[in-house]
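We emphasize that the prediction below concerns an isolated chain of 146 residues; any contacts that depend on oligomerization or on bound cofactors are therefore not represented. The input was used exactly as deposited, without trimming of termini.
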Amino acid sequence: MSDNGDNAASLTLCRTVRGRVRILNPCEDPMGVLDPSKPLGYNPVQHLAIALGCCMTEFARRFLERRNLPQTLMATLDWQVDGRRCRIARMDLTLRLAVTLDDEERHILDRMMNHCPVHQALHGNVPVHIHVQKLGEEELRLAEEA
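Result of the prediction step, given as a token string:
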């Protein structure tokens, strides 16, 4: 990611039944600026996206656990940085679950995920849009391999 202009990026996290989190698809780096020799490897915005994804998937996992539903899930985070204004323009979280939720369950999940401290820290400063979808067969297999 460069420091000027608009830049979009994405990453996908997986949280397994055992609660482990993996980055399945690393942050896109079209400018080739990620340097694996650096101690943390990611820039601050990427770390923020990883923190948001980990926190939100933990709240979603707790929701699923309390309802005895399969807890394997994936989250893809997409974001856009406005380099001219030096700020994150938006973050989108697409949460993919092994089950389909009805409207009431989705409402409860939304309320639980709003307790995520990372999401709360961003609230009012960065628009975060949450989408919930069902995991595809291949995604489910990949997520359960961990």
